[in-house]
Design a protein that fits this description.
The complex is a heterotrimer of chains A (294), B (279) and C (435).
Chain A lengths: L1 H36 L2 E2 L7 E2 L3 H8 L1 H15 L1 H16 L5 H14 L1 H11 L5 H8 L14 H14 L3 H12 L4 H10 L3 H12 L1 H17 L2 H7 L11 H11 L3 H31 L1
Antiparallel strand pairs in A: 1-2
Helix pairs in contact in A: 1-15, 2-15, 3-8, 4-9, 4-12, 5-9, 6-13, 12-15, 14-15
Chain B lengths: L1 H36 L3 H6 L11 H9 L2 H32 L5 H11 L4 H14 L6 H24 L5 H8 L4 H12 L1 H17 L2 H6 L8 H8 L7 H22 L15
Helix pairs in contact in B: 1-13, 3-13, 4-7, 4-10, 4-12, 7-10, 8-9
Chain C lengths: L1 H23 L12 E7 L5 H17 L3 E7 L5 H11 L5 E5 L2 H4 L9 H4 L8 H6 L13 E2 L4 E7 H6 L11 H13 L5 E2 L8 H13 L2 H5 L11 H15 L12 H10 L5 E5 L6 H8 L4 E4 L13 E3 L4 E5 L6 H11 L2 H11 L15 H12 L1 E2 L2 H4 L5 H13 L5 H14 L2
Parallel strand pairs in C: 1-2, 1-3, 6-7, 9-11
Antiparallel strand pairs in C: 3-10, 4-10, 5-7, 5-8, 5-9
The chains are: A mainly alpha (294), B mainly alpha (279), C alpha/beta (435).
């Protein structure tokens, strides 16, 4: 028994070595040094000056920080829908569906285009002289050109949330959930059919519990994406505006590092960002642990 | 029986409507890019949303000739190609370890991998540049390949971990009893079993690398080495590009991944794949 | 055992092949040898169609005149240009010469720029004084020159004479003051012509251009310089007044409806070039300028004036002159400082400068370049820029505030979601965040 465990441990580390090697060499120093820089005043070039927690004091007084949290709150509220939508679509596609091959190509299209391209295209589509206002004008709405979806705070943040958190999650989400669903034992469904359950009951009682880990993990990924992967779309869609309506922690990190040459201060922002994501990730790890102890 | 069928039809119908709406929203941006790319910039200014009155291919000609687009395409293929081989091996191996094996420190390692890639690329790009510079890998394709795999492999590892955790352990056990070493288990069992996921993993990894900008920009500073994505960024110059030219550039850049996706989509698990792995 | 080794071997082979192939495509840092000197030049305009060709010609000329020197000119993306420079400086990587703006984006990292005073001592009189000032770390025309100016840039108003006629306005009379400007806008609007074409998406904003010229008439050079270090605040009455003036334009419907969705570069410019609109606030060199509009609409159809002039303007004649738009600089760790300095002198004067000017229409502020003063409009503009220059306040403000500043301009003028006092307060806060 012991040798089996020992063997498994040896195997495990051998398999992990390439990944660990790469991340240790290339990612460890950059990530850790960032924590150090948050305690300094530094331009990004030259010598950093150690100033202790000054940056954090400034951060907690910075209006941008609080606006970012508010905006992130809105974005996070969309996450449940962002997880549910691909789940439901995947469930439908799972059973086979006429023309599903076509949808398969289309659903992943946003991911193929990428956030920068999508942000650029949407900034044109949602603009005052884009197809949306064109359509409204044709429908008889007067002064449709004055409607500026991306220029009003409320519609800007909600458009951003809809595009990034729901719409852009569907492609990868469907692939991810379908692959998870594909390994559910078919006999479970057969048994249920004998009992006379309908599709909805199957979904709630068989499908969802079976892919619990995938759903939880996908949610964690969605969080990380919202907190730390939105720069491309924010930059091309709204530039953080109007005002601070679409400003997030991550966007602040970029702007403060590279436009303001305040890398030390920006690092403090990125550390706060890190803690948010780490907290979410730790919850997931806890769930894994619990799941395995059962 | 009848009630079942009717219900099924209704559900299908509603699903069809929802999917169609979704598809419309998905296709429109591409349609918009296409019609814009064949308008002359002067026409676009007055006709932003309608069909082009005087279609022209000038924008594409400009994109293809102004920059060494073909060189960029070649570089991108080389970079993504080699990276994907390494990426695939690293992710399947690590996914195997995390997903199927149990050993002390496993969760710690998993947490580490999860944490190490939280920071967005730009935050660590500066320090990565320093590292690459000190290693003498600046302006080399190898340098970028290693950085790409290091940064994107954690994500691919999660995918494989998820997948492998649903596979019965008995497969590995029996191979172990037969005396197979772990590397053999990897190549003879885990990789073949991952066939449904190969396409998924490759698409996700390849796309991430195709679109990647911060690292490529800092590590590849010379024209001959650059990627397609960088080429588009370069074209913008000081004053940006008119939308029609930008649209043409976008279509050129994503044209290839799109084509590849359409051709290889069968290898991606999406749709009615008969699920259970017979144990 | 054997089979296991075999698998490991395959892995090693794969990794080796990656390494080898990588080395084949590698172009590492060039080692110093005796023989040809290679100057590595970074340039965010090198990939542009017109500018790029001009630079190639200029390089060719230099290499002909300086055998033994190779110019390795690399295009870099403008979007992250300063981040790239920053990284290069901190790792002291292979870079000798680079193009740069002359605003706070450059001065934030100028410790790594080489001082060129000694190198240009013999030709310093050929460079325009305002240009040198903009290129000096201490804003002096004679010392701490760290950039050599390639373009001189200014901001001013253009108007479409044809549309003036259509609106019943005298096409030869540019509005002398604020009231006549408003009157002209009223007439244009009644004639169904958008009085002012602004582009306020992305960066820069037409709105901030208007700020630049109005502030030029209200503040002294010293006060405008005060925007660099906090001496001049945004609560300053001049800024408040300018804000009210711009607001009036919006309130009275004088601005094109779609301004919020129109990027300045190049959509708004193209709109005006297409014959739309009465007024357009443009530049004096390189793009959106006399040549651009003259070529598109005909020189007889374009008029120019340096600013709208409020009634209480202290400096009604002032022409916003950035001094220099972009220029070339040398890294202070370059192993070829002398040759690099020679190169940047070459590129910003004489034959090379002429090539650049003729190709792009940019004004190269060096007396060794003959200017085509047959062109009446150019002569007029040059006269204003040389005799009544006032600095551009946007070149002085901390670079980090610009993005947020634009976002709040949108919030106040276009979305109308905050009050004027809140707007001013916010802009001042943004300013203080970035000082």
């Amino acid at each position: 028994m012991k040798t089996k465990l020992k063997q498994e441990a040896k195997d495990g580390w051998i398999l992990l070595s390439p990944l660990l090697l790469l991340t240790f060499i290339f990612l460890l120093y950059p990530v850790v040094s960032n924590f150090y820089f948050s305690l300094t005043k530094w331009k990004g070039v030259g010598k950093p000056v150690f100033i202790g927690f000054e940056n954090y004091k400034t951060l907690f007084k910075d209006e941008r920080f609080y606006r970012s949290l508010k905006n992130l709150g809105v974005l996070v509220l969309y996450i449940p829908l962002g997880v549910l939508t691909p789940l439901v679509i995947a469930n439908t596609l799972r059973k086979g569906f006429r023309g599903w091959k076509l949808y398969r190509v289309l659903l992943y299209l946003p991911n193929i285009l990428g956030p920068v391209i999508l942000g650029t295209i949407f900034s044109v589509i949602l603009s005052q002289i884009g197809p949306v206002t064109d359509l409204l004008t044709k429908l008889g709405v007067k002064n449709a050109q004055e409607i500026y979806i991306l220029g009003k705070s409320a519609s800007a943040i909600n458009s951003l949330a809809f595009i990034f958190v729901i719409w852009m999650r569907v492609g990868f989400g469907c692939i991810y959930f379908l692959s998870a669903m594909s390994s559910i034992d078919a006999s479970l469904y057969d048994a249920a059919k004998i009992d006379g359950t309908n599709a909805w009951q199957d979904f709630i009682h068989i499908t969802l519990p079976s892919i619990r880990f995938s759903i939880e993990f996908f949610t964690v990924l969605a969080f990380i994406e919202v907190f730390a992967r939105m720069y491309g779309i924010i930059f091309t869609l709204t530039g953080g505006g109007p005002g601070y309506a679409t400003y997030t922690l991550e966007y602040g990190v970029y702007m403060i590092s590279f436009s303001a040459y305040q890398k030390g201060y920006a690092s403090a922002w990125s550390v706060i960002l890190f803690f948010f994501c780490a907290a979410i990730a730790l919850i997931q790890i806890r769930l894994i642990k619990k799941g395995e102890n059962n | 029986m009848n009630k079942y069928k009717v219900r099924r039809y209704i559900t299908n119908f509603i699903t069809l409507i929802i999917l169609s709406l979704f598809s419309l929203v998905i296709v429109y941006p591409v349609y918009f890019a296409v019609i814009s790319s064949i308008k002359a910039p002067a026409e676009y200014v007055v006709n932003k949303t309608g069909l082009p009155q005087n279609p022209t291919l000038d924008n594409f000609a400009k994109v293809l000739t102004q920059m060494s687009m073909f060189k960029f395409m070649l570089n991108t293929f080389i970079l993504v190609g080699f990276s994907m081989v390494l990426y695939f091996l690293v992710c399947t191996a690590a996914g195997f370890a995390f997903g199927k094996l149990r050993f002390k420190g496993r969760l710690t390692a998993f947490t580490f991998i999860l944490f190490i890639q939280i920071f967005p690329q730009m935050v660590i790009a500066g320090q990565i540049y320093q590292l690459i510079s000190k290693m003498g890998l600046l302006n080399t394709h190898l340098g970028l390949i290693l950085v790409w795999v290091a940064y994107f492999a954690p994500f691919g590892t999660y995918i494989m971990t998820t997948y492998y955790s649903t596979i019965p352990k008995s497969l590995i056990e029996s191979a172990r009893i037969d005396g197979a070493g772990v590397i053999q288990q990897l190549f003879k069992i885990m990789i073949p079993i991952a066939k449904p996921m190969i396409g998924t993993l490759l698409i996700i990894g390849a796309l991430a690398m195709w679109h990647e900008l911060p690292f490529s920009m800092l590590i590849l500073q010379r024209l001959q080495l650059r990627t397609l994505t960088l080429g588009i960024a370069l074209m913008q110059g000081e004053y940006g590009l008119p939308i029609p030219v930008l649209a043409a550039a976008i279509l050129v850049t994503v044209g290839f991944p799109l084509l590849l996706y359409i051709i290889f989509q069968n290898y991606i698990t999406m749709g009615s794949v008969a699920g259970s792995v017979k144990g | 055992m054997k089979i296991k080794k075999g698998r490991i071997l395959i892995l090693i082979v794969i990794l080796l092949s990656v390494t080898l192939t990588g080395q084949i495509f590698a172009q590492g840092q060039k080692t110093q040898k005796d023989g040809p000197i290679t100057l590595t030049v970074w340039n965010f305009k090198y990939a542009e169609e017109i500018a790029g060709k001009a630079f190639q010609e200029m390089d060719k000329l230099f290499m002909e005149q300086n055998p033994g020197v190779i110019i390795d000119h690399q295009a870099q993306p403008e979007s992250n240009y300063y981040q790239m420079l920053l990284s290069a400086f901190s790792a002291k990587s292979n870079l000798d010469v680079f193009l740069t703006h002359t605003d706070q984006r450059a001065w934030g990292i100028s410790e790594s720029f080489q001082v060129l005073d000694a190198d240009i001592a013999d030709v310093i009189d050929t460079y325009s004084a305002t240009a040198l000032q903009a290129c000096s770390e201490t804003n002096s025309a004679t010392s701490n020159i760290k950039i050599l100016p390639l373009t001189a840039q200014g901001v001013g108003f253009y108007y479409n004479k044809d549309n003036f006629r259509k609106a019943g306005l005298d096409p030869e009379k540019a509005p002398a003051d604020w009231d006549s400007f408003l009157a002209a806008c009223t007439k244009l609007k009644s004639a169904g012509i958008a009085p002012i074409i602004l582009g306020n998406q992305g960066s820069p904003f037409g709105i901030d251009f208007i700020y630049r010229v109005i502030l030029g008439t209200l503040l002294s050079e010293n006060e405008i310089d005060g925007f660099a270090d906090g001496r001049t605040k945004f609560t300053n009455p001049a800024f408040v007044q300018a804000t009210e003036m711009i607001k009036e334009l919006y309130d009275r419907g004088f601005v094109n409806v779609d301004n919020g969705s129109l990027p300045y570069f190049v959509d708004a410019i193209e709109t005006f070039k297409g014959g739309n609109g009465g007024f357009f606030i443009g530049l004096t060199s390189d793009i959106a300028h006399w040549k651009d509009f003259g070529d598109a609409l005909g020189y007889e159809n374009i008029g120019y004036f340096s600013s709208v002039v409020p009634q209480n303007a202290k400096y009604p004649q002032q022409q916003v002159n950035q001094g220099a738009g972009v220029g070339f600089a040398v890294t202070n760790y370059s192993p070829h400082k002398e040759m690099a300095a020679k190169y940047v002198k070459f590129m910003t004067s004489g034959e090379a400068g002429k090539i650049f000017m003729e190709a792009t229409g940019a004004i190269v502020p060096n007396t060794t370049i003959p200017l085509d003063t047959d062109n009446v409009m150019l002569a007029e503009i040059l006269e204003k820029m040389n005799n009544h220059p006032v600095p551009d306040f946007m070149n002085r403000v901390p670079g980090g505030m610009i993005n947020d500043f634009y976002n709040f301009q949108t919030l106040y003028f276009i979305s109308k979601e905050i009050s004027q006092s809140r707007y001013i307060q916010q802009v001042q806060a943004i300013y203080e965040n970035n000082l």
